[in-house]
């Protein structure tokens, strides 16, 4: 065997060499590792054996690992390890001779090793149990095999359809049609009655917070007057509203005057009205609305609930369409490519 030099400062010290093998028994063709370890002081000169392609005849060396050095005792001792991967293709009991290393030009040997290699057991008494090579068997297709193909084809069809749609839209250059839903506007008296019903349902405010109750009630009446009679009652005092209404409808103003006066007393003079007084003023508000409301003409044309708005496609819109065509078309081509590749892998 050849020798590999590893140089360190010289000194005299104790040296130990140990060789171990992972498995003493192998089947033909199996592998095992032989490990060589040298323990010495850090100031020694070491030469490790360089093994050729065989340890002994019949035992082949497949790989020689790089030496590995561990520092022990605060770098006072070195433990150098090297591994050899071996195998054999002949059944026999092999004697592996000791490994020889040189430390400061002095020879040290490991213990010898043994390796038993077995052949594969064969039942020669029953030759009828041996079978020749089987023919090629067809493997049935499963959903996992065809699922990527199906998904790729579906994706290609969808993307292709979307791309064609964008092309048609671009070539026709049709305007973009938007449908705007319009909430039908309630007549003033219906809207006012709806809000009064909400106030009526709030019994706690009517009993415990008269200021809130009258504020909300007069707010509804002021909004109704503004929509019904066409003047801004929201910005007028109670007296100004009554004076203006006297010019419109004198019959309906009497009870409304009582409502506004009570509301002003509650809001500005901290008046505490009785429960029946609150109910009476609520009734007065309802009567005023019913007396002054304008009924809808059944023959009048109803306002549409949907409005179609046409917008001409801008240059930016055309660019967006072209980009959409390019993206969906490219994605469809990629999906087609994946499908074709999968068909080739499955059937060819």
TrEMBL record:
Chain segments annotated as transmembrane: 149-168, 319-340
Keyword Membrane appears in the UniProt entry: yes
Keyword terms: Membrane, Transmembrane, Transmembrane helix
Top-rank taxon, per record: Bacteria
Protein name: Protein BatD
Species this chain originates from: Phocaeicola coprophilus DSM 18228 = JCM 13818
